[in-house]
Amino acid sequence: MNFCDTVCLICDDIGVRPINYSKYHKICQNHLTNIDDVILITCKHCNSNVLILRDFIFCSTCNNKECQVHPGYHNSLEIKPKINPEKEIEISIDPEKLNTHIVDISYEDSNEKPKCKKCHPSTEKIPCLACKEVFCPKCNPFEQYCSNCLNNLNDCDNCGKIGMLITLKCSHSGCYNCKDENFCKKCNTISTEKCDNCNKPYKMKLERNCRHKACDQCINGVCRKCISSKSIIKKNCINCGKECDSVLTMKCNHEGCHSCQNSPCKMCNRNTGEYKQNKCPTCGKPYIYIAEKGCSHKRCENCREKPCIACYNETLVYTCQYCNKKTDRVTKIQCLHELCGQCMNDNIYKTNNEILCLKCYSSSQEIREVEYTKPQTNSSNFNFFSCGYQVENRSCGAYSLKNSVKCCYCRKTASNIKEITCGHLMCQVCISEKQLCQICTFNKNECSYCFAISSDLLVLECQHSMCRMCINQRKTCKRCKRNKCHQCKREKASDTGDCGHDLCRKCFEINKKCYECDKKSVMYCPNCGDKTVENLIFKCKHHGCIICVDNHVCYKCAKKLNNKKLNKKNSEICSYCKISTNEFLYLRCKHVICISCLKDLDETKLKNLNYSCLQCISEGILFEQICSSCHCMTRWDIKNLIFTKSCCKKELCTKCYSLIADKNHSCNECISF
User: How far apart are CA 246 and CA 237, in angstroms?
Assistant: First the structure.
């Protein structure tokens, strides 16, 4: 059955449609309309009895699993093999049991699943040139195309063979065979296209770096034309750095000259064979081609025309004592500090006769505000500094009274204040939010990201300027971040809230404080997590709200106590186990939970339910409440017996009361409400 899946089983024309579920045989277009519902016919090519199903032929697509697996036996067919196995097989059909699920039966079929549908022992698979799908080459007359692509085969006028018709590079029509052999009848390309090295006709078009044509056997060798010619295009070998005629590919997939083919590759690690990540100092990317222009520093070919950053860093021999950055020039002022050009414009304080840096000026103002004054006599307990002030055993730059210093961004007094790069002091909250100093003056000639002073600046859409290096690295403007709303981080800030943060108009109208500061100012119950005006003391000396105080103890201490200590006069029905008991505790919804259920439940499970009963959650009584975990207003969403919090997006199981980590959640407990 080598030709049965491509040629019609009645004639020698190309088969268009498969005739049954096995798809072993096909039928041409002429015989397609002249068939009955069910026909039993003998194939012309393989002499096997085949059933033709009209219902299957006129079905455009078939996704049944029976079409993809090896064909089995049908219950309406009886197979009776003769004594001589080489002869045909007798097949008797019961018309009452006959249906459309009939497949081809051959003598080679057995209960074992074959490796290939047609030739059982074969396991060889090759990819199709057209659709790139693998197929068995023994079951296909054309070993380069699968059976699905062979439906579009026609007679090629160029080579006279059967193949898929395409347009060649010379704009003439041909097939895939003509393309692989580089043959065109009109252009006569196979006689003219020859290898420049061995002077033989070649099938595949290959070009060297010297632009001479070569066959697949001579592509890795030395080009003879380049050796004999004087006017050749020479290149530098990446491996040895010498000029060469042609650059070839070595075993490690790196490029090298002909003399480097047998020598070890310098781009690879000789011990491990891995590629060395040599990064370009200009762009920071791993470089392959080394370009040197005007200096001895190595960089990639893309950065060849760019200024060398390594040469620029060598000129930066001075260090600014204010911003601790390297620079090529510093200026010494009257406080004996050496400042760079940027700090001389932004971080100095000018008086009538003196020029001080802002570190010395701010420290002197802080000392004057508190209790330190300039003494009249010299003493060993006092140290004199260049700024003209004395502090008891302190240094001018490092000393700061943190308890009375304000943050340079939010202007609030705080104890956890640190010194930033510009020399000013900032609280820990503003440092974590990556805020910028508001004391430093704005300079139009400095970049809005790196704050470097330059004359070559570009104006952004926000009317701020940025240097070309930051624009190439796709940096964002830091000055625009200052003016954004502290809460939504989107709109521009127009008002200052009561908390000191800048807010936009919408956020200011909703609440005059940002969400974080408003959350800190509200008091919450440490026992159940609900909002409260005042926290009272339990008998266990812990705190709780007014509803929790009726329990006399908190939930944590109730698990450790004996049940007799929690006995009450009246009895209540537990909202979890539905048992009447006088040993219970009140929940946030004012329903009760017994001690046995409280001890069985984990503390985190009850906290996930906001210390409420399932009945109030499921009936929608607690549609909105404060979350015990994040203290935000939450809503319960109930779907498929799963409770979902809208605030922290937690999904809770109604059987085990635990968080659902994945979709295949299974409960060991079977508690129902």
Answer: 9
